[in-house]
Amino acid sequence: MPRPVTLFTGQWADLPFEEMCKLASGWGYDGLEIACWGDHFDVWQAVEDEGYVKAKREVLDKYNLKVWAISNHLKGQAVCDDPIDQRHKDILPSKIWGDGDPEGVRQRAAEEMKVTARAARALGVDTVVGFTGSSIWKYVAMFPPASQAMVDAGYEDFANRWNPIIDVFDSEGVKFAFEVHPSEIAYDYWTTVRMLEAIDHRESYGLNWDPSHFVWQDLNPVDFIFDFKDRIYHVDCKDAKRRVGNGRNGRLGSHLAWGDLRRGWDFVSTGHGDVPWEDSFRALNAIGYDGPISIEWEDAGMDRLHGAPEALKIVRALQEIEPPAASFDAAFASSD
Amino acid sequence: MPRPVTLFTGQWADLPFEEMCKLASGWGYDGLEIACWGDHFDVWQAVEDEGYVKAKREVLDKYNLKVWAISNHLKGQAVCDDPIDQRHKDILPSKIWGDGDPEGVRQRAAEEMKVTARAARALGVDTVVGFTGSSIWKYVAMFPPASQAMVDAGYEDFANRWNPIIDVFDSEGVKFAFEVHPSEIAYDYWTTVRMLEAIDHRESYGLNWDPSHFVWQDLNPVDFIFDFKDRIYHVDCKDAKRRVGNGRNGRLGSHLAWGDLRRGWDFVSTGHGDVPWEDSFRALNAIGYDGPISIEWEDAGMDRLHGAPEALKIVRALQEIEPPAASFDAAFASSD
Amino acid sequence: MPRPVTLFTGQWADLPFEEMCKLASGWGYDGLEIACWGDHFDVWQAVEDEGYVKAKREVLDKYNLKVWAISNHLKGQAVCDDPIDQRHKDILPSKIWGDGDPEGVRQRAAEEMKVTARAARALGVDTVVGFTGSSIWKYVAMFPPASQAMVDAGYEDFANRWNPIIDVFDSEGVKFAFEVHPSEIAYDYWTTVRMLEAIDHRESYGLNWDPSHFVWQDLNPVDFIFDFKDRIYHVDCKDAKRRVGNGRNGRLGSHLAWGDLRRGWDFVSTGHGDVPWEDSFRALNAIGYDGPISIEWEDAGMDRLHGAPEALKIVRALQEIEPPAASFDAAFASSD
Amino acid sequence: MPRPVTLFTGQWADLPFEEMCKLASGWGYDGLEIACWGDHFDVWQAVEDEGYVKAKREVLDKYNLKVWAISNHLKGQAVCDDPIDQRHKDILPSKIWGDGDPEGVRQRAAEEMKVTARAARALGVDTVVGFTGSSIWKYVAMFPPASQAMVDAGYEDFANRWNPIIDVFDSEGVKFAFEVHPSEIAYDYWTTVRMLEAIDHRESYGLNWDPSHFVWQDLNPVDFIFDFKDRIYHVDCKDAKRRVGNGRNGRLGSHLAWGDLRRGWDFVSTGHGDVPWEDSFRALNAIGYDGPISIEWEDAGMDRLHGAPEALKIVRALQEIEPPAASFDAAFASSD
Amino acid sequence: MPRPVTLFTGQWADLPFEEMCKLASGWGYDGLEIACWGDHFDVWQAVEDEGYVKAKREVLDKYNLKVWAISNHLKGQAVCDDPIDQRHKDILPSKIWGDGDPEGVRQRAAEEMKVTARAARALGVDTVVGFTGSSIWKYVAMFPPASQAMVDAGYEDFANRWNPIIDVFDSEGVKFAFEVHPSEIAYDYWTTVRMLEAIDHRESYGLNWDPSHFVWQDLNPVDFIFDFKDRIYHVDCKDAKRRVGNGRNGRLGSHLAWGDLRRGWDFVSTGHGDVPWEDSFRALNAIGYDGPISIEWEDAGMDRLHGAPEALKIVRALQEIEPPAASFDAAFASSD
Amino acid sequence: MPRPVTLFTGQWADLPFEEMCKLASGWGYDGLEIACWGDHFDVWQAVEDEGYVKAKREVLDKYNLKVWAISNHLKGQAVCDDPIDQRHKDILPSKIWGDGDPEGVRQRAAEEMKVTARAARALGVDTVVGFTGSSIWKYVAMFPPASQAMVDAGYEDFANRWNPIIDVFDSEGVKFAFEVHPSEIAYDYWTTVRMLEAIDHRESYGLNWDPSHFVWQDLNPVDFIFDFKDRIYHVDCKDAKRRVGNGRNGRLGSHLAWGDLRRGWDFVSTGHGDVPWEDSFRALNAIGYDGPISIEWEDAGMDRLHGAPEALKIVRALQEIEPPAASFDAAFASSD
C-alpha cells in the first residue's frame, strides 16, 4: 500500500466523532489523525478503559478508516508555556486547567502527555503529534531585552519538562512528532536545531513536517525535509499564502483575524497557497518517508465541507508522483 | 537652518551624559535626542529641581548641542505590558519597579510618562519619543487562539491607560511620538491605523518614524510617511538588513542574539541595510517635515565609535537632497 | 442564488443578438452584460419603444438568460475625448458622429449616456458599465510639458460633462460603473482617487472592477477592491499577461497588434494571465459584493468559441470559494 | 489536421519497438519520433534492406502511428567530440566504436549521420533530429585558459565535419534539426548564433527546439522561437525545474545523479517544470510552425508509464490554444 | 583625449548662455550640448549671420568649453505631432508657431530642422540631437481601436516628413541623433526597429542613447547599446527611478507632477536611479563609442545647482573604467 | 594587527617580481600572496637553494611587504586533470610538461605540489593556495551519460593522488587551501562536501574562500563561510557580475571571451560585482578568521593599474567593520 492519506480531526472537534468518521470516509480518506479533544479521543479513558478503545476502533472499522497517529497539541502547549492565561483556559479541559495555577497546569499537562503515549500504545498507534509550548516564545521580539541566558534557560526548561515525557514514549515504543510552529519551543530552522540539541537528539522525539508556517517565515520546506530527514515522523499538509508586497500588509499578521486579506499571510486549503507541494512530495519520496500524509485543513475563507474533499483530491494527485525503478538513461546503453 | 541631525543617547546610556555630549559634539552632531535613563535625563528631577534642567542645558551649551526631543521608551513600555517580568525589572529604575506587582508597575510607569511631558516642557522641548507596551502583543502568533474580543480589549486597555497621559501632553503643549515597534500596541501598518482610531486620532499623539522594523516585515517606509503624513512628529534613523533567502534563516530571528548572521534580519548602522533612505528623505521633504533627524545607532557587528560618525556623514549627504524652487521644465518655455 | 456569471457581449457585437444568446446559454452562462452597440441594445429605441424592450426580454427568456447590467463604453468614450478623430468615427453610429464636429460629437454622446440610464431603467437594470473618455489622456507622457493647470482642467472638464449625466442616473435610480482604463479620465489608482474627488464621490458613480489593465501597470487588483470597496458596482473578468523581462518588450506595447508576443503585455482569456484571481474573489467575498461576475472575453491568440466556455468554467470554480459560517478555531474550544 | 503529437522513443529504447508502439498508441499519441538505437531503427539496414523499412511501417500502421522525424543523437554526438571515452563506448554500437581510436570513431559516426539522412528519405521522413558533439565543450569553464583561437578552431572543426554531412542531407531533401544542448557545439543563444554562422546558415541545417536546457541557463524559450523562427524544424517538449535559491544548490548540478533534489536543476515531466509552455505554444502559432510536437520524456522522480500519458494530455490542452480568424475589436465597428 | 563630458543646456535655457557657460565651466565640464532655444543657440541666426556663431564660440572659449553636438528637441517635436495644441505653443517660438494652423506649424518646424543641420555645420559640429514628434503616439493605448493600417500610416508620415530633412543632414555631413522617448515616433525597442526600417536605415539618422525612459518601460539599456551599436551617435546621461511595487503607484505616472513620489517612476539625478550605469559604460567601451557623454539633468526633487556638479563627478568615475591593453590570463603563460 | 591585505601576484606574473613588489607597496598593500610561476617564486629553487629564499625576502623587506601564503594553482590543476592537453602545456613549465604524456604530467605536477609545501615552510609561510584538477569535471553536463560509478571514481582518484601530497603538508606543518572553482574536483557546495569526505576531512586540507564563482552558480558566499567555518584557511577577494536576465545571455558564458558583455557572468574588480562583501566580512568576523585578505584581481574591462589600488581601498573600508566589545542593549540596563 502506498502512503495513506488521513484527515486531522482537530479542526472538526465540534462534530461528534462518528459524524467526523462518516464525512472522512465518504470523501475517500484512508484514515484519521485523531485529535485528543472534543469527544474524538480521551487519552485517560483510553488507558483506563479497554472498552473505550474498542468502541473507537469499531466506529473506525464501520467507516473503513485506519489510524496511524493521534494528536494532542492543546495539552502539549501547556507543558512549557508561560504565561498560562485565558487562552489556555479556553482550550483545556477542567481536569488539566484545575484551579488555573500556572505551574499546576503545566504539570498536569505534562502528565497528560505521558498518558497520551500510553493511549497511543493502547490504540495500537506509533506516533503522537503535538506541541510543546515554550517559556521563551514571549521573548521573540527581543525587546524588552532578553539575554542569551534567558533564552538558554528556556531550552533547558523545555528539556527538563519533556525528557520525563519522552521517557514514557521510549518505554511505550511510541514516537512524538513535534510540529514546528510559532508559540512553541521551535518555530523555525535554527530553533529546531537548538531544540534537538537540547534533548540530545533522542530518537523518540522527532518532527511533524507541517510547511504552513515555513512559508511566511521564508523557510524552505523542501530543504527542511532533507536536513532533518532522520526525524520526519509525521506529515501534515496545511498550506499558507503570503499576502505581503503592497508595503502595508506585514509578516506578523497585524493581530487581524484569520481570513482578513490585510494579514501578511494566512492559512489556505492545501494547494491554494505557496507551499511547493510537488517538490515536497518528491523530497518525501527521496528520504523514503512511508508514513501517513495527513491533511490539516484550515482556511478561513472557504467552507470546510468544500475544502476537505478537494484537498484529498489534490494530495492523491501528488501521491501519483513516484520514482521509477530504473534510471532513464539506461535506455541509451548500447547493447549490440 | 535645515533639519538638524541629532544622536539618540539611548544606546549610550552606559556613558556619563557629559562624555556622550563630548563625543556627539566632536563628531559634528547638531544635538541630542536625550534618553530618560542612565544619568542622561531624570524626568522627576527635571520637574522638581530647576537647577537640574539648568545644569543639563549648561552641559549641552558647552558642547554646542541642542535638543528637540527627549525619549522615554523604557518606562512607556511598562504602561501596557503584560506580563511584567524580569525583562522589565532589568530596565526599570527601582522607583518604578517597586515591589514588582504588575499593576503597580504599570501605574507608576504611566505616572512617569505624565511627568515626562512636564519634564519636556521644563527643558523647553516639544516632543517626547517612546513606546507604549501592549497587553496583547503576546497574542501575535494567534495560537493558542485569541479571539477578536481579546484583541479589541487590548486596544481598549491601551486607550484607557494612555488617554490620561495624553491629557497631560495636551496641557503641556508637548507631543508624544510613538515608535512603531514589535512588542508595542502598534508594530506595523494596520496596527498603527487601529491604534490611532483607538484614541480618536488625538493630535498630541503621533509617530516617531523609525523604518528599521518595517524592513523585515515587508512594510514600505516611504509610503508610511505619506499615509501618516499628519502624524510624523519625529524621525529616527535606524537601519536593518534582511538575511532571509537561504531557506534556513527565518523572519522571526530564531531567538538568536543580535549580530548572529543566522538571524533572518538584524539592525545595522544607518546606510548599511535595506531601508530606502533616499526616497524616505524625499518623502520627508514632500510632506514638509522640518523636525530633527535623529540617529538611533544599533549594529551588533560594528563598533559604535566607528559607526556613529559614519552614520552622521551618511545622513548629512541625504540632507543635501533638497527640492528646487522651480519646475525644471520651465526652461522649455518659449519667450520670444 | 450565488453571484451570477454573465458574458459581456461587446466583443461579440458582430453576431446578431439572438445568436449571441444562444451561444451564451448553451455554454451555461446565467445572463449577459449587454453592449449598447451592434444590434444588441439600442438605448434610443429602448426608451422610445416599449415593444423593443419587451422583444429583447423575450429573447433572453427564450434562452433562460438574465441581465443585471448594460454597457455603453463606445459612446461614453466620446463624452470627454479630445481629439475626436477617425477612431471615434469607426465606432460611433452616425446619429452620434453626425458631421464629426468634435464638440457636437461630445454633446451627442453625453446625451446618449443620459438616455442609457433611462434605457437601463426601462429594461429593469440597475447598472450601466462604461467609459468617460478624457481630454487629458493625451498628456500622459507629460511631454511636450503639460502643466498641472492643464491636468486640473481635464478633471474639471470631466466633472462638468458628467455631473449632468449622473443627475439623470440619480433620478433613474441607476448606477454608473466606470471602468478604470487607459484613454479614460482614470486609468490607475491615483487617477481613480482624483476622479472620485472631482465629482465629490457622488454615490451613483462607481467602478466596474476590471483587473486586466492593472496587471501591466503594476497595480494590485486585490487592494483596489478593498480601497474602493464602497464603489465596486460591477465586476468584469478580463485577464492580461505581462511579457516584459527580456529587455526588449516594453510596457507600452510598441504599437504592435494584439496577439503579437513582442508586446510587453496583452489580453488573454481569463485564467491565462497574471491577475491573482483567487485572492480577488476572496476580496469580493470580503467586501460582500453580490452583483454579477461578467466575463469580458479578449484574447487575440485564442478562438473565442473555445475561450468563452473555458472562462466560464474557470470562474465557476472560483465562485466555489465561499467563506464558512464559523471560525475554524471554534473546534479547539474546551467544553467539558 | 492540427499539429500531431509524437513520443520520442529515445528514453524507451530498452523496450522492443513494437511494445513501444503499443504503449504510445494506447495512450493516444499520433506518432513517434523514432530513435536510431536499440532495435527501434537501424539506419544501415534501412538503406540496405527495403524490407526493413517496410516492416517498420507495418508495425506503425498496425498501431495507427505516423512518423515525421527520426533521431540519431548518440552517433551525432561522436562526430565532433573530444575526448572520445568510455561514455561514448557505452552508447555506441560496435560498428561505430570499432577499436575506439578517437578519430576513427568520429569518422564512422559522421558516416552514420550521412546514412541517417538516406534512411530518413527511405522511411519517407523529412527531418532528422540530433546532436553534433563538440571539440571545445570541454573549454566551457575557460580554465585552464582557452584562447579565442582555440574556440574558433572548435567551430571550424564543426563546420569541417558537418558540411559534408549536410551535403548529403541537401541531396536527400532531408533537414537536420540540431538540439541546442550542453556538450554540443551550441548550447545557448550566442553559441547557436555562432554555430549557424559557422556553416553559413545552410538551409538544411536547423534547430530542434527543446526548452529544457534553456530554463536553468536563464535563457528565454519564447524569444528563442522568434529569433530563430526560420530555423525551427522540430519541437521536443522536455521540461526542467530550477532548484536553486537556497544558496547551496548550484546551477551546474554538482555531479549529482538525476532525481537528486540537491541538484540546482533537473528534468521533469512536461508541465511540471519552469518552461513557459503556454507562451511557447503561442509563439509556435505565431511563427506558423506546423510540424510535429514531440514529447521527450525524462523525469527521474516519476514513473514513465505514469508520465508519458499525462504529458500527452497536457500537450493536447496546449494545442487547443489556436489563433482566431478575426481581430476581436472588429466587434466594435460601427455599421449603422 | 578620453570621451569628453558635456552638460545639456536644455533644462537651463532660462539662464543666459554666458551664465550657463560660467556655471558649467566652474563645475569642470569639458563642454556643452547646446539647446537651440532660449538665447542659447538660434539656428536661423547661425546660418544667416557669421558673427553670431563667432560670438558664441568666443563665449565658449572664454570658459574653455567645447561643443560636439547641438540639440533641437522642441522644434523636432512639432514635425510629426498630431494634435498640435497649447503644449506646442508654449514651447515654440512665434516664428514656428505662426498662426497655429497645425500643418503650417509642422512644415515650419521641419524647415527649422533643416536649418539646424546647416547651423551645426556652421558651428563646426557633427551631431544634432532631437525629437521627431509622432502622428500615432496618441494611439499608444490602442483604444479606441487603432488599426495596423493607421499605425503603418504613422511610420509612413514620419518617413515622408523626415526624409527631406535627412537629405539636408546628408549634404551637410551632419548626423541626427534621435532620442528614443514617449511622444515620439519611437519610444522603445520594437518601435526603434520599425522607425529605422521606415527610413531604410539611412546612415545620417541614428540614435541619442538616453536610458531614462528605458528603465520604467522595463527595457534593457545595455542590450540597446549592443543591438543598435552602429547607430549610437550621441549619449545623454539622464536617470530615472521606478517607484512601483506598492500596488498603488502605476507605470503611467497618474498625470501627477514630476517629483510627486506617488508617480510610478520619475527622473532623478544621474546615479540616483535604476539605470545600470557601470555596465552601460562598459558597453559603450565595447562598441567603441568615443563621442561626448552629455549630462541631461532632470530631478524635480533636487536643486540643479547641487545636482549638476554631483552628476559630473559620478560620470567622471564611470569614465575611469577603461579596458586594458592585454588579456589578464596572459600572466598565466608558461615561458621557461 | 588587524587582518592584513595582500595582493595575489598570479595575474601579474608577466611582470618581474620586484616590479610587482614596488607596485603593491606603492598602493599600500601589506603583503603578497605570491604565485609560484613567472619569476615570482620557484618552489624547486626555494627548497634547493637557501639563497633563493633569502633574496626573495630581501626584496619583500625592501618594499615593506609580508607574505602569509603562496599559491600554485597551475601545477595543482595538472594533478588530477583529464584530458591533459594544449591548455596545460601553455601554462606549465617544461620541467612538469616534459614529453606531455598525461600520466607523467600528473605525477610530476603532484611532485611539485609536495615541493610546494616544503617551499612554503622554507619561506616561513603556513598556507599554500591552489587547485586540484579533476578527472570528472568533463562529465559536468552528464551527457553522454556518466554513471555514478564514474563520478565516484573521480573522487577516489582525487583522494588517491592528493593524500600523499597532504602527507607532506602534514609533515611540514603547512596547510593547503583549495579554491572551489569550475574545472576542479569541487566547484560548488555539494561537491565541496563530497571532496572533504573523500579525504576524511584531513585537517591540513582546507579551503580558500573565493566567492567569484559562487555568484553565477547562485551559491551563497556568506553561508559558505559558516557551513565550512573550520576549513576556511585563506580568503581571496575576487568579484563577479551576473549578466543574465535578458533571455539571451546564459549561465555558461557561451564560450565568449572575458569582458564580452554577452557572457552571462564575468569577473569584475572587487566591489563592482554581485558578491555580498559586507555580509561576507561580517561572517569572517563571526568565525574569527584572522588570516590575510588577498585581492585576486581580474576584470577584463578595467585596467589593472587602476583596479588594484581601488580594490585595496574598498577592502580597507570593509575591514573597518569590526564587532564591538559589548552588547548594545547593555545601555538599557537599569542601575539605580
From TrEMBL, chains A, B, C, D, E, F:
Signal peptide: none annotated. One of its GO terms (molecular function) is isomerase activity. Keywords: Isomerase. It comes from the Bacteria. Gene3D superfamilies: Divalent-metal-dependent TIM barrel enzymes. Residues 22-317 form the Xylose isomerase-like TIM barrel domain. The keyword Lipid biosynthesis does not apply. InterPro entries: IolE/XylAMocC-like, Xyl_isomerase-like_sf, Xyl_isomerase-like_TIM-brl. PANTHER family: HYDROXYPYRUVATE ISOMERASE (PTHR12110), XYLOSE ISOMERASE-LIKE TIM BARREL DOMAIN-CONTAINING PROTEIN (PTHR12110:SF21). This is Sugar phosphate isomerase/epimerase family protein.
